[in-house]
Design a protein that fits this description.
2 domains; Leucine-rich repeat, LRR (right-handed beta-alpha superhelix); LRR_dom_sf; elongated; 298 residues; two-stranded parallel ribbon; alpha/beta; repeat; 15% strand; 29% helix; Leu-rich_rpt
């Protein structure tokens, strides 16, 4: 197993060049950038001597767990794409982290980001997901990033809807290609309405004119839906009134109510007078055929 240790750092060319003038401890204390990408590293050892580390490159390795980074309170950039990571964890002390690259891992849930109050970029594209599963988002993490996160890359993750990203009010760039999103117009409208700062959607620039057009379009669509729902409610109520029988307020005098549509009838309802016939005993009775009831219209 290849572990990232201070001794491995000591063997690097950069330290060899500096070792003549300073000790390993001094070198590690001054170290701000560390690049150990594509080194077959499987684990991260104690690197607490690198207290001033700001940028760490660990992509293209075989790391399965994010660990031993609690010391890196000055870290601003973390590159760990194309490893074997399945869980986002142990990042709570990285209060200055602004860019996090975790694409090409095996992450199924975007979580563990609650304390990253400075995070501006999140890259989780192309996760190696189990068949039939999609990448999902922990609402707590998304909510905690609502005022900071600007750039999000969620491409190639079988995602079929993005309502979970609605709280990201400062979002300016979203990359979501090669997913299972269906209604593109509705998708863009959601993003434009919820993210006033959005400037780029999968490389397509969003200007203020197009944003305002879609906002107005959505408002018009919502108003029409509200009107349609109101009309449907009235229709359902009228249908209920005709079918409830004795519960109808005029059921005790049906012939009277039917004969006075202008007084008791509701607007938009057409009534048809019943046929009055006598029975075998000479008594009056109202007779409605199925055809008569079908002519009641709204």
């Amino acid at each position: 197993m290849v572990r990232l240790t201070v001794h491995l750092i000591a063997k690097s060319n950069n330290f060899s060049k500096a070792c003549r003038s300073e000790s390993l401890q001094q070198y590690l204390k001054k170290l701000t950038h560390l690049n150990f990408s594509n080194r077959s590293i499987e684990d991260i050892d104690d690197l607490s001597m690198c207290r001033n580390l700001t940028v760490l490159y660990l992509y293209d390795n075989q790391i399965s767990q994010i660990c031993n980074l609690g010391f890196a309170s000055n870290l601003t950039h973390l590159y760990m794409q194309n490893n074997n990571i399945s869980c986002i964890e142990n990042l709570s002390s990285l209060h200055k982290l602004s860019k996090l690259f975790l694409g090409g891992n095996s992450i199924t849930v975007v979580e563990g980001l609650d304390e990253l109050k400075s995070l501006k970029e999140l890259h989780v594209e192309g996760q190696k997901l189990p068949r039939g599963e999609k990448l999902v988002f922990d609402p707590r993490s998304i909510s905690s990033l609502s005022e900071t996160l600007c750039i999000v890359n969620i491409s190639k993750n079988n995602i079929d809807e993005i309502w979970d990203l609605a709280p990201l009010r400062k979002l300016t760039h979203l990359y979501a290609t090669d997913n299972q999103l269906q209604d593109i117009l509705e998708l863009e409208t959601k993003l434009y309405v919820f993210s006033w700062y959005l400037e780029d959607l999968d490389g397509k620039q969003i200007n203020e004119l197009s944003r305002q057009f879609l906002v107005n379009w959505k408002a018009s669509k919502d108003a029409k839906k509200k009107l349609d729902d109101g009309e449907k409610q009235i229709t359902n109520q009228l249908t209920t009134d005709f079918c409830t029988g004795p519960q109808h307020p005029f059921a005790h005098d049906r012939s009277s109510s039917l004969s006075k549509p202008s007084e008791y009838g509701k607007p938009g309802v057409t009534f048809r007078t019943a046929q009055v016939q006598g029975d075998s005993r000479g008594k009056r009775r109202d007779k409605y055929s199925s055809e008569d009831w079908q002519t009641l219209k709204i």
